[in-house]
Amino acid sequence: MPYYIDKTTSTFADELLAAGFIRLLEQLLDQQGQAPDIMQIDHGHYYEIQTGATLDLERVKTTTTPFPLAPIIRTLKNAKSLPDLPEHRAYVIDYDQERDQRGAFLTAFKGLEKTAKKAYIIGDDANFPFDLMPPPPHEHWDIFRLLNPAALIGYNSLMTQWLEIGDAGKTGAICCLLCELFSQTPNDLAACVEESWKPLAKATNWKTDTSASQFFNPPQGKGINKPLPNGVGLSNLSSFWLLEWLKMIGFYQIAFTRTLQGVNDRKTYVPVVGRADWTTRQKVQTIFEKRMRFAETAVLSDILTIIRYTTALVERVATAQRNTASEQEQAFLALLGEMPRPADFIRGFHTVFYKDLGNAVTTMNIAFLNLPGWIEIRQPEDIATFQAILAEHENIVRQFAENKGEELTLLTYYRDFIVADNLDPFFEFTTAYSSWLISQGDKSRFPPRKFTTHNLRRLLVSNQSNLSEILDAPGFVNIAYAIRQSTVTAQYRKTQGDRRYDIRYGLGRDLVRQSQYPDEFLASLSDFLHKYNAENAQVMETRPAPYRRSVQTSDIQDIVQLIDKHGSDLIAKLLVAYGYARESRTPLEIEEEETTDETTTSEFQ
After folding, report:
1. Domain map of the chain by residue range?
2. Would the pTM count as exceeding 0.70?
3. What is the pLDDT of residue 597?
């Protein structure tokens, strides 16, 4: 029997509601001895949830034993007001104890050698010495920190009411109520409350409505945000308590929340389903969260969320394509079709930025981040290619610090690209990056990281297949080579004591600046190539080999033809992107990747 969750807010509140109900279904199916095989499918204005096995609602009605799906949070301040609870982590979490446990782990972590730290940072738990360390932080510590103190009272009251329903033997009745509510679309919430809930709650003090917390309902702040505001009062907005309870349950299942580096502001990310099975989602979420253990700055946090979640999904595809794949993994592969795209499985992320105001927190920004649509796995070798591209891009963006204006601009350009499947901001990034590469080349202990031409070509062609005509043209390849030799390669040679060729500072920006007018661009490019060939001839007369190869007349003719067909602006930006990329890894760059400590740009918070 399918179930349906209406999308009523177009924010992550809808995703949390669906995830919470799926978690409830998973529990009920497990109690009936059924292996949960739950699928969630996006139908535009609602989600369809398929359970595979049939849930016997008559058996559900007889369920009387309470079962917790999220713990009550105990603190020093509220300990006396909480009901008597079993001392089990499923029922109650001691906030202060979890905070102290986390502190002890971090203190011990600081004393570890670099290899062990890196293993923990990248989620390589198999090579981390957990047996020599204090217990690690609770997997949901960041959720506990989110709730305490701002939303703790409301959260605990709903978790307590759920347990009270269980103690009264009404668990099965409430579960059936929810199954009935979501058995059709549109969901008839008013009838559910009046005809099903209120008769059950009539003889008790169970509340019907509760305040809708902004942590689970980002657009719902105070009274002026009502759908039909009739005043500017600051009263909270209300919602049916079972819906809010399900959102809280769902938050534990799919949400990722973290305070930002250096501040008390916070970002929350919730994935949006296209067509996904629940088991794979949980596995991907686990891999993703292991790689997001450190606080990041705001823009970098958005970028790394997309890159690392996509990487985790690609890894699951790789696992499913092995000969030893389980039935569930094979079903996941069949779900994605012949050419799997991570963006079909998960569309992207709803993200909310919460500003810390000292004694309160407020919602400041609501946005959506798409997963890259250009990642499409057509054949097995594509997996390694896209993994290499994503790893390369992560290494590049991690070089930047948001407290530096130029680097913040670079991060913003890159974020606009990775979340929107649009090459225009990517070309803005590569053009600005060309100047940054040269400016940093003489300063850094290690040379700044660069794109590789192989991975860059695959990225560009995956976004826009007709670009292969440009990228494969001999003239384009040779002129991009000339740009590379006059910029990043010349600078690398300088660090090795070879100063035979001059470094052309600002070449990339100059070419793109002139590209709005084809004649001016060709004049600027021809001037550079003339000087490039002249310098080659001079070096050949005075220095021993090896030499750079010169540009031929046929190369310029190729570029002229490409400009006539595709425009000078696109050709200029592609030349700069390719010209400042590297063709092969140098020994120094290999050493850089092996010795750079990633903790320098991330921190626990």
Report:
1. 3-227+234-254, 422-605
2. yes
3. 42
